[in-house]
């Protein structure tokens, strides 16, 4: 698709920083500007990418410096660049702060440089990113459920909607701009991936956003959208959750169910053609964990191997 990275004005005083096609690791961020201060929604997957974003935002932040960073969740493509926003308060949900320490940048650096099939697998997903030399910089303030933040005279609402994509997802709502930054509660044009679940929590998060008075919706990955984008993600998750329940009741294992449900998705014009369709393997496995507390998920390397295999990667 070429390089579609750029800064886009959405609501009044709100900007979205959109990266490429929104595929693995190419996340979006946001900037909310008030009188003399700004809030940054998420940093990016490595330091060069985050610095590029901050340089692009300089025309706005020169008069309204970034005083606050909100990390919407713990995945590195939304927090690994935190160290570059010096002097800012970093806010996240308590669950996100706890989860953030579990996958340090050094781990991804090691996997990306590993020899053999494991290294090939992770370079397939993350070879474009530079994980060396990143200092994981955790939140300096945490919250549970809801928090109101003042940014240069503007009210910003932080609403915890996880566990869903991860254990501590947060959306960022700017009421006076009718704008919401969703983090990875929305993938637009790409398949959502449900690491934590249950899927019903994620569906509820979509319903919550649909109940907000918003016109501008900035997803964690993919192009800018509106409430129609929220409906699409909600409908996909509801479909997968219902289908997984049916297959589980029939005695199918999670891998078999994922293959069958993928074929069903391929017959749906509303979902057909979404990228990263191999994520169905993780999504069904997460649904099975919700249905059966004794269900044991494969380790993360095996989960990535299955997604890659599903999409035809030869590793």
Account of the 3D structure:
This protein is α/β, with parallel strands linked by helices. It has one domain (6-310): Metallo-beta-lactamase, Chain A. Helices cover 35% and strands 17% of the residues. The chain is built from ten helices and twelve strands. The protein has helices spanning 47-56, 58-61, 94-100, 105-112, 116-126, 199-210, 227-249, 254-266, 280-291, 300-310; strands at 6-9, 14-18, 29-33, 38-41, 66-70, 89-93, 141-143, 146-151, 154-160, 170-174, 179-181, 216-218. The strands form two sheets. The chain has a seven-stranded mixed beta sheet. Strands 8-9-10-11-12 form a five-stranded mixed beta sheet, with helices on one face. Helix 5 crosses helix 10.
Strand order of the largest sheet: 1-2-3-4-5-6-7
Query: Pairing-aware structural class of the strands and helices?
Result: alpha/beta
Tally of strands: 12
Task: Report the helical percentage.
Answer: 25-40%
Task: Please identify, by name, the CATH architecture.
Answer: 4-Layer Sandwich
Radius of gyration from the alpha-carbon trace, in angstroms: 19 Å
Largest sheet: 7 strands, mixed
Distance between the termini: 25 Å
Under CATH, the topology can be stated as Metallo-beta-lactamase, Chain A
> Low-confidence runs (pLDDT<50, min 5 residues)?
none
CATH class: Alpha Beta
Number of domains: 1
The CATH superfamily is known as Ribonuclease Z/Hydroxyacylglutathione hydrolase-like
List the secondary-structure elements in sequence, H or E.
EEEEHHEEHHHEEEEEHEHHHH
State the main characteristics.
seven-stranded mixed sheet, alpha/beta, 315 residues, Metallo-beta-lactamase, Chain A, 17% strand, 35% helix
């Amino acid at each position: 698709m070429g390089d579609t990275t750029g800064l886009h004005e959405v609501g009044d005083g709100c900007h979205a920083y959109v990266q490429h096609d929104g595929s693995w690791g190419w996340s979006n961020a946001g900037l909310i500007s008030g009188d003399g201060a700004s809030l940054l929604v998420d940093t990016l997957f490595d330091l060069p990418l985050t610095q590029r974003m901050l340089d692009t935002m300089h025309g706005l932040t020169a008069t309204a410096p970034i005083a606050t960073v909100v990390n919407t969740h713990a995945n590195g493509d939304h927090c690994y660049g935190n160290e570059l926003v010096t002097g800012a308060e970093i806010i996240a949900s308590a669950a996100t702060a706890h989860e953030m320490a579990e996958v340090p940048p050094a781990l991804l650096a090691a996997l990306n440089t590993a020899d053999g099939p494991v290294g090939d697998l992770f370079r397939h997903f993350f070879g474009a990113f530079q994980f060396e030399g990143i200092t994981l910089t955790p939140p300096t303030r945490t919250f549970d459920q809801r928090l109101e933040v003042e940014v240069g005279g503007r009210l910003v609402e932080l609403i915890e909607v996880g566990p869903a994509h991860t254990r501590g997802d947060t959306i960022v709502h700017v009421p006076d701009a009718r704008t919401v930054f969703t983090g990875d509660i929305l993938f637009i044009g790409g398949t959502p991936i449900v690491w934590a679940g249950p899927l019903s929590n994620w569906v509820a998060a979509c319903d919550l956003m649909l109940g907000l008075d918003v016109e501008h919706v900035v997803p964690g990955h993919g192009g800018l959208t509106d409430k129609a984008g929220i409906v699409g993600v909600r409908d996909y998750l509801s479909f997968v959750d219902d289908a997984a329940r049916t297959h589980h009741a029939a005695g199918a294992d999670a891998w078999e169910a994922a293959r069958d449900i993928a074929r069903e998705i391929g017959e749906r014009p509303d979902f057909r053609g979404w990228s990263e369709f191999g994520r169905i393997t993780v999504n069904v496995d997460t649904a099975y964990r919700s249905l059966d507390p004794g269900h044991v998920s494969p380790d993360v390397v095996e989960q990535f191997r299955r997604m890659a295999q599903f999409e035809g990667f030869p590793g």
